[in-house]
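Suppose you are handed a protein chain with no further information: no name, no annotation, nothing but its sequence. What can you learn? This example shows the usual starting point.
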Amino acid sequence: MKQFERFRLDTANECLWRESEQIAIPPKAFAVLRYLVENPGRLITHDELMDALWPETFVQPQVLRTYMLDLRKALGDDAGQPRFIQTLPKRGYSFVAAVSDCVAVTPGAAVQAAKQSGFVNREEELGRLRAEFERASTGERRLVFICGEAGIGKTALLDAFLDASLRSGKPPVCVARGQCVLGMGWKEEYYPVMEALGQLAGAADGESARGTLARMAPMWLPRLERQAETPPGTGSVAGQERLMGGLCEAIEEIAASKPLILILEDLHWADDATLNLISALARRRGPAKLLMVATLRPGSAAREHPLRALKQDLSMRKLCSEIGMKPLGKTAVRSLLSKELQQEGLPEGLGGFVHQHSEGNPLFAIAIVEHLIEQRVLVRHGSDSAAHWELDKPLKEMEGGVPAELAQMVELEIEQVSAEEQLVLEAGSLMNVAFPAWAVAAALGTDALAMEETCDGLARRLHFVKRGGQDELPDGSCSDFYVFSHEIYREVLYQRQSPRRRARGHIRIAERLGEMFKGREADVAREMAGHFEAAGSWQRAADALHAAARRAQLRRAHVEATELTEHARRLELNVS
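A reasonable first move is to predict its three-dimensional structure. Written in structure tokens, the prediction is:
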């Protein structure tokens, strides 16, 4: 592994890391970066680079410029004042940053492990994807949406499908893969499409694709080589339609002789132009050996988002199909852990513990295992063939909190909403995985009805918040409640608040409970006690527990009453 500044180049897994964040780079662009990094501090001519990466293949020199621009974008480099890649006009390039060997564990290893070893119990989904490919191979164009939450295995499914399809070589197939990037949708039209076409043009046999584009969609080539100042599609509506029609015809021409698999990942971040292109390709009537596959998160598009309308319309016209990725069951999680740990028999209780805390999400499951290893709860004993994993501590002794990698992933998602909406989500985390709008309003000191509208908007736009239903309040009115899709989201939102702000919110919720149940506070005394205790208000928590104990005695729940009283007395010891 090579390291330069904050970046690590993982040559074994062919990926780039910026600290703990994985940066998506197409295979050929990665190969260019690897050659530069492995030959730092010297001039690398155009001819040397092309001979090294495209031996015995004629490649247009402009392709190098395309990859350099992509790499500078990924690295945050400036061609005018380069920190990494320096251009030597008419000569070549030089990698100017200091490079060192890195033997540290790759950050974000759970993401890579989920892709490599985390593919279990997906035979049904893989079979459906292969069936769609077989139909496309006969000339029946197909569009497939793969839906699932972050970390559920959408990319792993695609990797397994492509690996089998390319390895078999029957029939020969072209693959074009583009990645929609958060924040790029409004900056650059057709961003994932350009990445996919760049792969086609830059492949070993890419001259045929380039020739087709030059002949049928000539306005797209300058954009592909990053030479045009404005993207295709700008200008009049008629001009946009002509440009899109030309690209559709070019893609169909490429898919005429052998199947073309066009993959666009994270479509919920796509620009409108990309969605319009997908719609046009799906609706065209002519034969094409074209399989379009798009991944997205369920509920990630608001009702007014064009992706939702596109899916609904194409589904109604039977022009697409959907593969839903469900969480893994207990048996599948155990299989996943066996593959990850390379051990058939797991320590007792490990599979159930990981399944409970990951809720069947493969990425979360692997991250939890890594967390256990870091905390020396799960330890490898022995060596060579006798090596095996054991629990050196009870699982309950694992420190709380969310593995750093997952916390960073969730933080990135949270940062995409406004500061006011972040406060709403954080207030919801004070309750539990399920939270009522009235509690959020109480914590923030705002109107409950207005808060329901805000929470409704979040539930429509965010994949990790869902509308759960309604609760009837003591006065006969109703309050909507909402649910975090996973405990990890709630935990991150809870921990990002200062202790003082959390305490204030807990106390306001407890007090609001007392107001709503005035005259029969004992009915909710235990819940009030939990909020007071979380706020560090020991005496008020103890008083509420004593009230809950008296109510338990009236119900003849003597064991419960004793436990509540003992808990109250322990809290009273904290009162100075």
